[in-house]
Fold this protein.
Amino acid sequence: MLILVLESSCDETSAAVIEDGRRVLSNAVASQIPIHARYGGVVPELASRNHIRDIHPVIDQALAGANITLEQIDGFAVTCGPGLVGSLLVGVETAKGLAFAMDRPCVGLNHLEGHLTTVLLELDGVDSPTFPYIGLIVSGGHTDIYIVHELGRYTLLGRTRDDAAGEAFDKVAKMLGIAYPGGAEIDRLAASGDPEAIKFPRPMLHHDGFDFSFSGLKTAVLQHIEAHGMPEDDAALADLCASFQQAVVDVLLRKVMRAAKHHAIPRIVISGGVACNRQLRRALREAGAREGNEIFIAPASLCTDNAAMLGAVAAHYLAQVDLDRFSAHGLKARGNMPLGESLRTPARVHN
Ligand code: KG4
Ligand code: ZN
């Protein structure tokens, strides 16, 4: 069973070929980061235009990478939401067009479901967790903790009440004059800094639930810069980055460990762009070893947006498609899309 998966929810155009819902045969990604960096964030109109330019070359690249032709694809899958509607539209309409042309089924997927289930793929050096597991999504748009009971069944335990963790990284980076998206650069700068140099707040740390809040921390960084001026040298910049990063990591870590304990589920998965953060990965692995939790983190290249991350859910939903009743006709781009609605997206066509 070969599936072609498309993902274009934000500023990455991606296509992947997945075999049997587990094996990533290819995963082509065209990033638009250099295009948006000069504006300090994603410009939706530019994003859609570049998806249109990139989508077919990216599909060709994915097919060539898997050494197959379009005729060999058994089914198509595409992210329908959540994301930027103009961006999503490009992937959705392309997938529908291919599905019609090739007379194959096509399902619409939820982007977050992809992040949550990436570790179910066959990955070098990373085992797959058994169900249920605790899944933390930390990206530019989301900071959510779920229980993943099985594919398609999730319970939301908590989420950010304001900024997402990645958004906080990007906004602090902007304050420091670091180009968008600054998360990875803060990670790099923080490596030589002292995480205890500046005492930043740990928002919601002692709050009982599993919700997060990062806008106060962002303001605390701004106030620190206003009071002390911009870091005057590389060492001061590194200390500020390390101290901010440690505040985010402490909160994420504490909440996800507490969720695992509270629900007696020892398996923890983290995903989304911020899951690339080396200090978060290290701290979580250490905490897991200490507390007896199993930690599952995909390689960094599969944590930021890409199509392969949706391979497991794509196979799951395609297997449920009743070809006589489903049509890709009704697939629509959806800016907001609650988790667990993947299969409901296609319109039912009654013959
Ligand atoms: O999952 P993703 O590629 O896109 C969304 O779905 O949002 O996540 C992008 C986010 C950005 O905010 C970026 O700054 C952040 O992930 N990010 C990082 C790192 N790499 C990417 N944040 C902290 N440390 C990193 N190493
Ligand atoms: Zn994402």
Summary: The chain is about 40% helix and 20% strand. Confidence is low (pLDDT under 50) at residues 345-351. The pocket of KG4 (ligand 1) is lined by residues 10, 139-141, 166, 169-170, 181-184, 187, 272-274, 276-277, 304-305 (CB under 6 Å).
